[in-house]
Specification:
The protein has a single domain, classed as Nucleic acid-binding proteins (OB fold (Dihydrolipoamide Acetyltransferase, E2P), Beta Barrel), CATH 2.40.50.140. Helices cover 30% and strands 31% of the residues. The longest helix is centred in the N-terminal third of the chain and has 21 residues.
């Protein structure tokens, strides 16, 4: 077998490995019910339940923030985020959490927030101006 064939087979094997590892990250969002059943690490999209308490005590543990999230099915669950409370967290339109269920609590190790656009007011102004 020529050297070029060995290198090509090696590159194909590496590409297959990388794609198989990335496939898990490209999955769709789960709900709390699906997270309970699977027991695996999942991504859950939802909105902050502003009527319920948020607990962040940085003097006790700066990497522990508790709040309630409503998933896309409308089910609410308590969440433990193992990170500091994000700035302007209450303003988020949508929150995506990565974690798993532990008992009756969703333990998240990572998050992504979608905040309102600072350009939204400008868009409304421009639309009104055109009319």
């Amino acid at each position: 077998m020529k050297k070029i064939h060995i290198v090509a087979i090696g590159m194909i094997a590496v590409a297959i490995f990388i794609l198989s590892r990335m496939a898990g990250d490209m999955s769709s969002y789960a709900t709390f019910d699906q997270a309970e059943v699977s027991g695996k690490k999942v991504k859950i999209a939802g909105e902050l339940v502003k009527e319920k308490e948020m607990v962040y005590k940085p003097e006790e543990d700066p990497n522990e923030f508790r709040f309630y999230l409503r998933d896309t099915d409308g089910k609410e669950h308590r969440v433990l985020l193992l990170r500091a409370k994000p700035q302007d967290f209450e303003l988020a339109e949508q929150i995506v959490l990565t974690g798993r269920m532990k008992g009756d609590e969703f333990v998240a190790t990572d998050y992504l927030t979608k905040c309102p656009s600072k350009y939204k007011d400008e868009e409304v102004f421009l639309k009104e101006k055109k009319s």
